[in-house]
């Protein structure tokens, strides 16, 4: 059984749409996208990598803006600070990865390093933060936090148009990870409407 499958089983045991359920589903999808990116070639690799970048941006921004202010109360903020530091390091790795030729050996090696770091980060969240969210945050707040995460995830483009794959112009429009992350953060900061 894959780790992604285990995360989905854990998510299924929680109320649908709760913050931890949403994050577990995102972790599972991120793991699958890393695998798809590593295995694919050509335009299929570009599409998988673009989808991975978009989901990482939405996921990271959601954790930073929705989850970390709540988990900052745990362990004098140390856990939240450690996770934020890991995310900043992963963003740097991803920025470097974006500069590589997607068909190069260097890309594959850097992708494997990033996958390992992101996997370790997700494991730490599941071990250190999720139990706190489940035990110290009331159900209503968990559902509201999950709804915020889902709202932005649904609004974010997760599948670049097929004609954008491999196009320098389209890639410039999609922008580097830092720009994707900024757009995701902006989406989380917009006032909730309904």
UniProtKB/TrEMBL annotation:
Residues 20-133 form the Hemerythrin-like domain. InterPro entries: Hemerythrin-like (IPR012312). It comes from the Bacteria. PANTHER family: HHE DOMAIN PROTEIN (AFU_ORTHOLOGUE AFUA_4G00730). This is Hemerythrin domain-containing protein. It comes from Actinospica acidithermotolerans. The lineage of its organism: Bacteria, Bacillati, Actinomycetota, Actinomycetes, Catenulisporales.
């Amino acid at each position: 059984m894959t780790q992604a499958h285990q995360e989905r089983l854990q998510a299924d045991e929680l109320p649908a749409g709760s913050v931890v359920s949403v994050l577990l589903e995102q972790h599972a999808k991120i793991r699958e996208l890393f695998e798809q990116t590593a295995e694919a070639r050509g335009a299929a690799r570009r599409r998988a990598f673009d989808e991975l970048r978009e989901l990482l941006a939405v996921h990271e921004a959601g954790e930073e803006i929705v989850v970390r202010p709540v988990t900052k109360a745990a362990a004098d903020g140390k856990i939240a600070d450690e996770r934020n530091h890991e995310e900043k390091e992963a963003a740097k790795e991803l920025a470097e990865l974006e500069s590589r030729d997607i068909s190069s050996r260097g890309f594959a090696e850097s992708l494997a390093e990033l996958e390992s770091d992101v996997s370790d980060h997700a494991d730490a969240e599941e071990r250190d933060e999720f139990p706190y969210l489940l035990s110290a945050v009331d159900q209503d707040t968990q559902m509201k936090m999950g709804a915020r995460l889902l709202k932005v995830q649904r609004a974010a483009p997760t599948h670049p148009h097929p004609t954008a794959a491999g196009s320098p112009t389209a890639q410039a429009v999609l922008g580097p990870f830092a720009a994707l992350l900024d757009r995701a953060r902006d989406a989380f900061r917009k006032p909730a409407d309904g």
